Amino acid sequence: MRSRTASGAAGKRPGIAIKKCWIYLGIRTDYMTTIIYYFTGTGNTLAAARMLADELGDTKLIPLRRTMYYGGHTPKADAVGIAFPVHFLDMPAIVRQFVFNILFDEESYIFGLATCGERPGGALFRLQELLDEKGYKLSAGFTLVMPETFIGPIDLMNDVSRREEKLAAAKARIPAIASAIRERRVSAPEGSNSTLWRLGGRFSRHLATCVYDTPSRLHATTACNRCRTCEKICPTRNITVEKEEVTFGDDCTQCYACIHWCPTSAIEIGGRTKGKARYHHPDVTLRDMLEQRGE
Questions:
Q1: Residue 28 to residues 22, 57, 137, 185, 208, Cα–Cα distance (Å)
Q2: In total, how many domains does the chain have?
Q3: Which secondary-structure segment (H or E) carries 131?
Q4: 105 shares a domain with 33
Q5: How many helices and strands, by DSSP H and E, does the chain display?
Q6: How do residues 89-111 score in pLDDT, each as one tens digit?
Q7: What is the pLDDT averaged over residues 265-287?
Q8: 100-146 pLDDT, tens per residue?
Q9: E strands of the chain, at which residues?
Q10: Residues 135 and 263 reside in one and the same domain
């Protein structure tokens, strides 16, 4: 669990003064101003959540993987964020499961932060629907375009200059998102809830899961040195590394963490990833990824 605190001007941290008043009055002193739960595969979402936490101040980052199996978990915060990468124009299954299990204080300002390679599709609208079903309200949903991480038939990751542009643009947008959260602005989720985007998301997921058959085609090549990095960072504990082989189970969430973090680029999806670029966020370390799973 990581706590991030901004070191900027006092004007960026109105929550601190409010919290001091609570302490003086003896009211809700166990509450943080903001908690952000995050899920990340390549580090993009964690990096985005960190930047936002630094800008907000008095914010705690919690890997949602650590709390998702505890029914009735209720965050003690005035603002609660759920940060995740967009998978196939939608929310990752592991994040949907987290939302299904968590409870919220009815007074909390709930926001979503979705990172994506190009377009968020209807991911934040799906978050809104899941919260509505539980009787909660999504106050706002923000998107950040980050470097592409999906390795498909077309290689979208080799353009390093485009990658740097996305990282710079994402960093530049963080203050505006933080301002909206501090002011507790209520707005519609970013992205699109159109039928076209919904169908597009279903089609792309079907393409990756059934046509490309991603989960069952994962394998380790002879370049594997049995370091167990993939086994340790897999959020669903879907990988087992033994002396003679690496086994992939049937609970793959398609986050591609194993592919992008392998130090020898030994993990492939059939032949379509062979020779293609790997990526993980430059400010996120393997240690950070292990913390996400509690290693």
A1: 6, 18, 22, 22, 47
A2: 2
A3: helix 123-133
A4: yes
A5: 10, 10
A6: 889 989 999 999 899 988 899 99
A7: 91
A8: 989 998 889 999 999 998 888 889 999 999 999 999 999 999 999 99
A9: 2-4, 32-38, 59-63, 77-85, 109-116, 140-145, 218-220, 239-241, 246-248, 267-269
A10: no
Closest CA to 215 of 266, 249, 260, 265: 249
CATH number at residue 239: 3.30.70.20
Q: Are residues 171 and 81 in the same domain?
A: yes
Q: Which residues neighbour 94 within 8 Å (Cβ) at sequence distance 6 or greater?
A: 39, 64, 65, 68, 235, 236, 253, 255
CB distance 247 to 77 below 8 Å: no
Distance CA(160)–CA(168), nearest Å, equals 12
First to last CA, the chain: 11
Q: Please tell me the predicted confidence (pLDDT) of residue 27.
A: 41
* 68, two tokens: 């998702």
| Host domain of residue 164 | 2-199+286-293
Per the model's pLDDT, the better-predicted residue between 158 and 109 turns out to be: 109
Dist. CA 106–CA 22, nearest whole Å: 19
Sign of CA dihedral 130, 146, 184, 69: positive
225 touches 264 (CB < 8 A): yes
Q: At what angle do helices 44-56 and 160-182 cross, to 10 degrees?
A: 40
Share of the chain above pLDDT 70, in %: 78
